[in-house]
Amino acid sequence: MKQKTLFTTIAVIFSFLAFSGCTGNSQKGTLTVDNILSNPGEYVGKPITVEGLATHVCAKSGMKLFLQGSTDAQSIRAESNSTLGKFNEECVNNKVVVKGTLVEERITEADLQKMEKEITEGTNVTHGEGGEGCETEQKAEGLAVGSSEMGRVNDFRTRIAERKASDGKNYLSFYHIAADSYHIVKDNAK
User: Are residues 121 and 150 in contact, defined by beta-carbon separation less than 8 angstroms?
Assistant: First the structure.
């Protein structure tokens, strides 16, 4: 009798743990762009699976894919690597699932000074037309569409000062997914 009770107790505990692991930990399931952006620090450096509407594949390299959340202000970039290769243009305007690791990029005053020097010397790398960045990238960074590279630097400098005043951090954080794999979600309703 004791052995049966012990077995039942262990089975109940195991079932509870397995159930909690499957439903309670969102990192094991597919996340939305909104989930990631609402608390990115929770996911930095961890493997994640994210689903969102693909709005853009970088025309210059094909190595960047942008996923949108509930609004176009909720956007995150997925970056490919030489193993994965270019993102398929067919992703655009479709739901896409990306698996990878969330990466935090920090922009500091030293980075801004380097950017200014490159702009002045004409050695900066730009995307888009006439020195303007890609519109999708600008939206993801919270910049006005059509901002110049120098406008970007000035905006970042202002935002760093605001962040330092509000929470003591003298940098901006931007996040992207270092992609390991991706696939277009097939719509079964079609």
Answer: no
**What tokens appear for 170 in the block?**
């003298």
Q: Contact, 138 vs 145, CB < 8 A?
A: yes
In whole angstroms, give the CA distance from residue 86 to residue 14.
Answer: 43
- Read off the DSSP letter of residue 26: G
CA separation, residue 68 to residues 65, 114, 121, 154 (Å): 10, 30, 35, 26
User: pTM of the predicted model, to two decimals?
Assistant: 0.73
Q: What residues have CB less than 8 Å from 133, skipping those under 6 apart? A: 126, 127, 143, 147, 149, 152
Query: Residue 76: which of 185, 160, 182 has the closest Cα?
Result: 182
128 — alpha (psi -120 to 50), left (phi > 0) or beta? Answer: left
Which residues fall within 8 angstroms of residue 55, CB to CB, at 6 or more apart?
66, 67, 68, 72, 75, 92, 93, 136
| 6 in Cβ contact with 26 (< 8 Å) | no
E strand or H helix at 102: strand 95-107
pLDDT digits (tens, 9 = 90+) for 60-111: 889 999 999 999 889 999 999 999 999 999 999 999 999 999 999 999 999 9
Q: Please, are residues 147 and 133 in contact by the beta-carbon 8 Å criterion?
A: yes
Structure tokens at 171: 């940098």
